[in-house]
Amino acid sequence: MVRPxxxxxxxAAAILLAACNGRRSGSSGPPLSTTPQPGQLLQSPTQVGxxxxxxxxxxxxxxxxxxxxxxxAFSPPCPVTVYHIEYETVGGRGEATTASGALMVPGGAxxxxxxxxxxLLYAHGTSTQKSxxxxxxxxxxxxxxxxxxxxxxxxxxxxxxxxxxxxxxxxYHPYLVADQESQDMINALAAARSAFSGLNVSGSxxxxxxxxxxxxxxxxxxxxxxxxxxxxxxAAGPMSGPYALSAFGDAIFEGEVNGSAVIxxxxxxxxxxxxxxxxxxxxxxxxSPQYATGIGSLLPGDTTDSxxxxxxxxxxxxxxxxxxxxxQYAAMTPATFPSNLAPxxxxxxxxxxxVTNAYRLSYLQDAQANPDGGxxxxxxxxxxxxxGNPLRQDLAKNDLRNFNPSVPVLLCGGSDDPTVFFLxxxxxxxxxxDNAPGAQVTVLDVDSAVGTxxxxxxxxxxxxxxxxxxxxxxxxxxxxxEDYHAGLVAPFCLYAVERFFDSH
Length: 504
What we know:
The protein is 34% helix and 14% strand. The protein is of the alpha/beta class. Helix 1 packs across helix 2, helix 5 runs antiparallel to helix 11 (390-397) and helix 13 runs antiparallel to helix 14.
């Protein structure tokens, strides 16, 4: 559940800010400088935690999914110090804003923990919480895993929270906006590097880019942007990302409703409306009246997903009406293929849906007239060039099937993922096979059978054991689907990417 970078205009571009060197009312972050500079560090990094190896292993062991890593050859040598950084960046329209993130520094006396170290730039997955702060690893599972798998193995880790989160002054998040999110990553890296000397930290010259889920998309978009800008990247490891956004969106509207469709769709519509201003004239153009009022200010927010559902602000599962928008669409209301995910698709339909039938019909008609080249069948494996629906135009604009990697890439995911379909990985792989046959691309399905001399045999076996444990102890296949994307696949892919990077 997704470049050329945007240049930052000065005061005139800062439409959403009270003033170019001022603050948004109620914001807690630091002020922008008089002449904002993307990538400028706003203040000295603040140390927020220091963790021994035993601290990190204890954190992992308390999470049943992550604990499975401890059964592999997992023995990180480095203690880790975590800092909170704040820097200047841009919003979805190029407006000046701020963002924050984590800088994780390995320590200790071991040879892999000291001296000039490789730098890892990491993009996190979707969060609905405005307060999200990956530097607070004691309360952030993704940050905890990142510290244990990468920083504790000797990588200097830079991980932005993204504009719109934590202390950022931006009143929305540019969700799955390729230009902005890649710029945000590059700015976080620049800010962190400017702090290295003051922390007695030294980068080796090697730079690795990775991320999970939304972050998998952001990582691949960042690789594209860095290549375009002539920036050196050693290797990339995007994981379980919605890279083929146009095809993924069409699949959802054609009845393959993913497990987090309500949240993801609400997020992306708000993001593209803020960034491009073209998705709707009124929220009722898309959303059912009971949800339309105020929906543009829900995400990211100050309440939990469950509270949004309990308050009736969003439906928990029903993306679409269980009545077809027209008779010819009955077979995709819901879709029944692929059959292994049919139970997930069915949950996405109900009597009080998020999206009106009229909007779904208009989207489907445009998809039929201007099909994506990767869905429902693979033809060109490229986004549509002449989509008429504004949302489909924006999805095509942000689709990543338009560049070829010049460095080694590992795409990792799970083939039964009900949240971000493996279709995204397969379409990227197919696009590169056709357009960049010499590209150094490795695809790892952690949910596949172990092959002969398989370099990831232990990862696949560990994943299979973890999945079986969830099925046996937490409620069978339903529990596996619920845990699959964020809980089961994430730690094993992260571990596989770390090993991949070690070989480069």
